[in-house]
Amino acid sequence: MLTKREIIWLIIVIIIFEFMLALGINNNAPTISFERPLKFLVPPLILLTTVITKKIAGKHNSITVEHTLWKIQRHGLPTRAYFKKPFPLGLVLPFFLSFVTMGIIKPLTFLEFRSENLWKKRLLKEYGDYNRRRSLINESDLAFTAAWGFYSLIVLSVIGIILSFRELALYPLYYIYWNMVPWEGLDGIKLFFGSFVNWIIVLVLSIFTLGIALILV
């Protein structure tokens, strides 16, 4: 199910995420802590949950989904404000900002997904005049695929609450908030413009779940 490139990026991103979890401040001094070793299970659980869920959702929406490092090309409003090559912000931003702040700010914006149309499968699902218009990928296909990923993380957070596992209860929600931002390439922009209603539902459910997590865990 996972491609070789996806596996490589997942390993790199999990290592960075683990490093971010270890960073902290103790007695006003920067430190790297390996206390509560179970918390280091959280990064692979979050990333594998959302990646696998979106790949399953993609098939349901007649698209193939492949995850890669989050990259941006536009860096400003002027028409010429483009990098010559896509900039790997999914590596630079999380590592740099968490390192500079010693873990106070942990940007969890690592990955984006790209899609290809499974047009034969799509055509078999549609009938009549609607068939022609639905033979191509539209924004709702990408939006619902991204939504599945967000909803899976809310479920993962609920499991963390049930198990009284604080990191598992909170970090899936933090991952949602960082990636819900409608910025180039992130899942948030796919959901925001493809299904604004689902964007709002994800936001409300995640805030509600966060409130329960902060009270109970």
Could you provide a short overview of the structure?
The chain is of the alpha+beta class and 217 residues long. Helices cover 59% and strands 14% of the residues. Helix 1 (4-22) runs parallel beside helix 3, helix 2 packs antiparallel against helix 6 (139-162) and helix 8 crosses helix 9 (196-216).
By helix and strand content, what is the structural category?
A: alpha+beta
What's the gyration radius in Å?
19 Å
**Widest sheet, order of strands:** 1-2
**Are there runs of 5+ residues with pLDDT below 50, and where?**
none
**Annotation, overall tally of beta strands:** 6
Shape: globular
Helix content class: 55-70%
Number of separate helices: 9
**How many distinct domains?**
1
Beta-strand proportion: 5-15%
Euclidean distance between termini CA atoms: 34 Å
What is the N-to-C succession of helices and strands?
A: HEEHEEEHEHHHHHH
Describe the overall structure.
The chain has one domain. It has a two-stranded antiparallel ribbon. The two termini are 34 Å apart. The longest helix is centred in the C-terminal third of the chain and has 24 residues, at 139-162. Helix 2 (42-60) packs antiparallel against helix 6 (139-162), helix 6 runs antiparallel to helix 7 and helix 8 (187-194) packs across helix 9. It has helices at 4-22, 42-60, 89-100, 119-125, 130-133, 139-162, 166-180, 187-194, 196-216; strands at residues 23-26, 29-32, 63-69, 72-74, 82-87, 111-117. The chain is 59% helix and 14% strand. The mean pLDDT is 88. It contains nine helices and six strands.
